[in-house]
Amino acid sequence: MFALIMAGGSGTRLWPRSRKTQPKQLLDLGSGRTMFQEAYDRVVPLFGDEGIFVVTSGEYVPMMRQQVPSIPADNYIIEPFGRGTAPCIGLAALYLRRVDPEGVMCVLTADHYIEKAERFRRVLRAAARVAEEGHLVTLGINPSFPSTGFGYVCRGTALGTVDGFEVFRVEKFTEKPDADTARRFCESGMYSWNSGMFIWRISVILREFERLMPNLYAQLMEIDAAIGTPQEQAVLSRVWPQVEKETIDYGIMEKAADVAVIPVDIGWNDVGSWSTLLDILPADENGNVITGQHVGVDTHKSLIYSPHRLVATVGLEGMIVVDTGDVLLVCPRERAQEVRALVKRLQEAGRDEYL
Amino acid sequence: MFALIMAGGSGTRLWPRSRKTQPKQLLDLGSGRTMFQEAYDRVVPLFGDEGIFVVTSGEYVPMMRQQVPSIPADNYIIEPFGRGTAPCIGLAALYLRRVDPEGVMCVLTADHYIEKAERFRRVLRAAARVAEEGHLVTLGINPSFPSTGFGYVCRGTALGTVDGFEVFRVEKFTEKPDADTARRFCESGMYSWNSGMFIWRISVILREFERLMPNLYAQLMEIDAAIGTPQEQAVLSRVWPQVEKETIDYGIMEKAADVAVIPVDIGWNDVGSWSTLLDILPADENGNVITGQHVGVDTHKSLIYSPHRLVATVGLEGMIVVDTGDVLLVCPRERAQEVRALVKRLQEAGRDEYL
After folding, report:
1. Residues of chain B with C-beta less than 8 angstroms from the C-beta of A339
2. Per CB distance under 8 Å, which residues of B are interface residues toward A?
3. Are residues A329 and B316, on separate chains, in Cβ contact within 8 Å?
4. Of A314, A329, A334, which has the smallest distance from its Cβ to B338's Cβ?
5. Measured between alpha carbons, how far is residue A67 from residues A28, A32, A45, A153, B143 in Å?
6. Any idea of the CA torsion for A116, A117, A119, A122, to the nearest 10 degrees?
7. CB B122 within 8 A of CB B163
8. Residue A85 CB coordination number (10 Å)
């Protein structure tokens, strides 16, 4: 049983803290540990250092090795560049089956927040038992509000209970719905958020790649033949640019025959924006999440990140103030998603120093 | 005819830009000239460098000399420390009457904004003619809204027209009124804002000091006897701490018998807060007043001052963002007056480095 932590993303919604060279998962967003460290902390009691694998971009590895020195260097699987989650997981599966071809892999993320770590480990253990039987298992999150920002999983017939967790056959995956649909989904009680975390046997997922994504599978096999040979890097560098970009959800999960979902409440949050952090991080008596020095008059429910200078505020309610030293971001929390638009403007203006 | 620019204040409402060592009047708030330089620019065509006197605190003189090198060094009158406008003006009068005992002095401010400089000079010229006849003259500002932040001057009988300006006897001075009273004042058409700018003969104002503030007058005479002697500094240092704090409005103007007001529209503004600056300074097509680099999405009517780092904003409306390098201020414009409360908190906390 392996953990595969996917840690290659470079989110822009936590800009200006997240940057090309320092993506979200490598940041300490206020807990004292980086998101990658937290992803590690959550699963190391279950998998041990040897059982944790990381798939990421080569440029991030030195920082990750520094942040979590105990994961063996050989457990880092390097994607030449991101091609979506399907190729990423396929590539990782090639390496993992060399360790144990009959193993179960838990595909996990490094940029999500999970409040209930103990419960998370328990559901992973249960999911692994379900996966042993040949199912592709996805963790479904009990939706806390009708979000239009997540994909949804509709449960079908019950498959039984494992270690106290109910397991269902997946009826249908739905991409991010509109507001009405999301509301309907939540009211029906049949839907979970798609967490992007999957548990399956390595041999089963590779068979599904062969069946549902034959082009990708052929490319993976070409790489596979070179692994461990002097040609490994050369083949990877040649094949990878030809790989089509695809998500595992669209490429496999939506089409696979035997998918199971385990709906859980693990205090999951995708940390998709500064606004989310306001909800997650510990707040003071005014509901403010403060990093750095702050003097405030009538300031509430605001996130202030400023390790370098004093922030003084009057009459703020639900504001985001982030000062990274070279950039200062100010925006109301309900507009936090639009930080992406700022990053886009800077990209267009060629202001690479801020990206 | 002399200009006396009072420049001793240390306003806290433009904090964090205004500091103890760099008060408002010594700052360039966005026009390219400091407020003191602007005060000089406005009046030098009328008075010449030799005719402009400055009363201020000794610590500010080096910076003022640097900002306006053409005012003779001898024209700086040093208050040991601030005791309100009455002692300040009294002290200055002692020095001015040595230059011309029959002269007219125009008491002006260095921390107010005056849009219509030419009209301002014209009204000063007219006011000087009225003052020649022995009146104490105050410039009244036509109120543009029922402000509760200014004192008001009620006009009485008309004294005639001078150079196209109507002159009235002052019926009454009123300190900052409540909102209802302010509204009533404005509707009546009989009231002007008290600009704090006065024009009078030196001999007349000294006579009024003698009559209405005899204690202060005696102290001034003690200082006067020492001026030009080796004891000047010693006497000033001994007498000044005993001087009672008082404003010229309360000490003289409200009690004087023969006060005239000339109501004018000179585009006057007291630059009392960051919010005022938003009204005064040139704005871009989104109504934003920007100093420094800014990238914004849907940001309007906001003041952004950040010479040191990029400011990125989403969805701001009427916000003040001021970054001085060591401090960052964020507050909605309608709360800008409360910046004082922040400064007070820092004082109480002994954070002198920010004051």
Report:
1. 312, 314
2. 16, 295-298, 306, 309-316, 319, 321, 323, 325-332, 334-336, 338-339, 341-342, 345-346, 349, 351, 354
3. no
4. A314
5. 11, 12, 17, 34, 63
6. 170
7. yes
8. 25
Chain A positions contacting chain B at CB under 8 Å are 16, 295, 297-298, 306, 309-316, 319, 321, 323, 325-332, 334-336, 338-339, 341-342, 345-346, 349, 351, 354
Find how far residue B269's CA is from the centre of its chain.
10
Q: So what's the architecture of B2-269 in CATH?
A: Alpha-Beta Complex (3.90)
Cis preceding-peptide flag for A87 (omega within 30 of 0): no
Contact B327 A312 (CB under 8 A): yes
What ipTM describes this predicted complex?
Answer: 0.81
Structure tokens at B111: 């921390």
Length of chain A: 355
Tell how strand B76-79 and strand B52-57 pair up. parallel
Q: Half-sphere exposure of A140 toward its Cβ, with a 13 Å CA cutoff? A: 32
Between CA A291 and CA A16 the distance in angstroms is 15
**E strand or H helix that includes residue A350:** none
The CA distance from B298 to the nearest CA of chain A, in Å, is 10
Tell me what pLDDT residue A148 has.
85
Extract the tokens encoding A132. 């042993």
* Two structure tokens written together for A52: 């944790």
Backbone phi, psi, residue B119, to 5°: -65, -35
- Rounded Cα–Cα distance for residues B49 and B118 (Å): 17
Q: How far apart are CA A297 and CA A300, in angstroms?
A: 9
Chain A contact set for B332 (CB, 8 A): 314-316
Cα B207 → chain centroid: 24
pTM of the complete model = 0.82
What residues have CB less than 8 Å from A186, skipping those under 6 apart?
Answer: A143, A145, A146
Would the CB atoms of B314 and A339 count as touching at under 8 Å?
A: yes
Residue A329, min C-alpha distance to chain B (Å) = 5
pLDDT tens, residue by residue, A95-153: 999 999 999 999 999 989 999 999 999 999 999 999 999 999 999 999 988 988 889 99
Backbone angles phi, psi at B80, to 5 degrees: -60, -40
- What DSSP designation does A317 have? B
Report pLDDT digits (tens) over B111-127.
899 999 999 999 999 99
Mean pLDDT of chain A: 94
Of A312, A330, A334, the CB nearest to B342: A312
Contact A111, A9 (CB under 8 A): yes
Percent of chain B beyond pLDDT 70? 100
Signed CA dihedral, B201, B207, B211, B212: sign only: positive
* Ranges of each domain in chain A: 2-269, 274-354
Place of tokens 């992007």: A196
Residue B351, classified by CB atoms within 10 Å of its CB into exposed (0-12), middle (13-18) or buried (19+), is middle
Please judge whether B338 and A297 are an interchain contact, meaning their C-beta atoms are less than 8 angstroms apart.
yes
